[in-house]
Each structure stands twice: as C-alpha cells, then as structure tokens.
Here is the input.
Amino acid sequence: MSLRALAVAVRENAHVPYSGFKVGAAILTKTGKTYVGVNVENVAYPEGTCAEAGAIAAMVASGDTEISEVYVVADSPTPVTPCGGCRQKLAEFSTSDVKVTMGTLTGEEIAMSVHDLLPGAFTNHHMSNV
Ligand code: THU
Here is the structure.
C-alpha cells in the first residue's frame, strides 16, 4: 500500500468530536517500515494530539527513529500542512531533505522538504557546546 493509501485509510479512525477535522499521517522509515497516526482530540481541548505526532509515537515505540518520507492527508480545500509543533517533531527524526507530501482527499498534493517546512530548525547542533 502506498503512503497516501495508508494515510487515507487510517484517517477514518481519527477521534475528532470537537473539530470534526480528521487527519491521517503515514511515515516510511529508512528500515522500510511504515507507521500511521491520526489526530486524537480531548474534551480538554489543548490535550489533543496531531496525526503526525501519533505516527511518530508509533514509530518510536517500535524502535524506529529515522524517517525517510511522510504523507499527511485531510479533507481540506488545499493540502493540509503540519502545525509548527509537528514540524519540529518531524525534524527531530528527519534529515532536512526528507519529503513531506501533504494531500487533500480529492488528490491535490504539495510536497515540501523538512527544511522548507522548518527553515532554521533548532537542532542538537545548537547545543554542541554544552
Ligand atoms: N491537525 C493534525 O492532526 N495535523 C495537522 O497537520 C494539522 C492539524 C489536527 C489537530 C486538530 O485535531 C485538528 O486537526 C484541527 O486543528
């Protein structure tokens, strides 16, 4: 199954009683494995988590840490872009050239690198004097 197909399929399981906005994410790692996630909202609104965060958590729980590609999909008029926090989370496990494809349910797509999504990212390089 393609990363898009995985993201589209898992999106159905999003828990979104408050926004009604379902998001699905799929990650391919350097090991060739795939991980999926959905947004999981909470009645205490700030406690909700994004689809990208769910996929990253599944990846790390499986002992995998090196992202090679990402796909994010939602039923949005234009391709959904990861929030600021998720850009930082993706950067944690990606090289700057990792491709993040954002898609709509109807098939419109935009692809950007992790660097393009988060130029000037804070990395462990900045802490190398510690
Ligand atoms: N959301 C994601 O899961 N990923 C994104 O890239 C953008 C936003 C979720 C968070 C919240 O559950 C809903 O979409 C509306 O903001």
